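Title: [Solved] Divergent polysaccharide deacetylase family protein 3D structure

Original question kept below for reference.
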Amino acid sequence: MKASKKNIVKRIGLLLCLLLLNPIGGITNVQADQSVLFAPPAPSTPSAPLSQDGRTQDPVSKKDSERRLAIIIDDLGNSMGGTEEILNLPVKVTVAVMPFMRSTEQDARRAHELGHDVLIHMPMEPKQGKPEWLGPGAILSAMTDEEVRKKVEEAIDNVPFAKGINNHMGSKITGDDRIMAVILQVCRERGLFFVDSKTNYWSVTSQISEKMGMPRLSNDIFLDDVHNTRHIAGQLRKIQDLLDQKGKCVAIGHVGVKGTITAATLKQYIPEFQARGVKFIGISELAKEQKGPGAPGRGVTSP
Ligand SMILES: [Zn+2]
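Solution (posted by the thread starter after getting help):
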């Protein structure tokens, strides 16, 4: 069981690498599937109980109002396919922008201007895969604490408007206590949070974040680990189930060679989510509500 989970995680990591390294997407004729993703919401029943002030107490409505979906789109910064379509989605999303790339500054600035959240998509060494898949400025397991700190600080300085960091690849690094402690310390000093993309099932990021009094944020589900409309629609259905269970969900998709498919499928199904009362939020909203009373803010170094 453990081995198969690990294999799945490795496969996801590999797919992400391939997506990033492929040339800019040329898929333009995405024929969106017109099928309805969810059954229509049940009409409110006239027999719903009334509270003392006369308003209906419909538990379904209350649950709907608590459904919040944070969609993160990874791998921006390199003029990848689907970037424009993602930025122009009619709802708030979070974009994770790779540092030191040709459109890093532009993508981060435009996303911010359009009201989206921005993350630094920090390249980190995976357990498997070639170093050249990582992109510039990557964190490697052989680095000293000081070298890791310098890489994180340089990346933060390179991506404007970022509210947090998530990992590009990184299955090896997110399982490394020493390195994750350095990365999270720099995040804390700079008032940023860290979102674990969950490329490693055995990631230590959540435990270290908790110890340091920082928000624990991680990916619940990949949207496009298989990159076609049918699979993405299936993942959106699973997201609806997760929202029913937990009230909130973090999902990660990608720009890249097939990025236009992710964007088009999201655009197609957004109205159905909205009709069911799902609110699209930036990941920073989930980070903020986890901040305890004693948690440090921007620029504050804890003892
Ligand atoms: Zn990535």
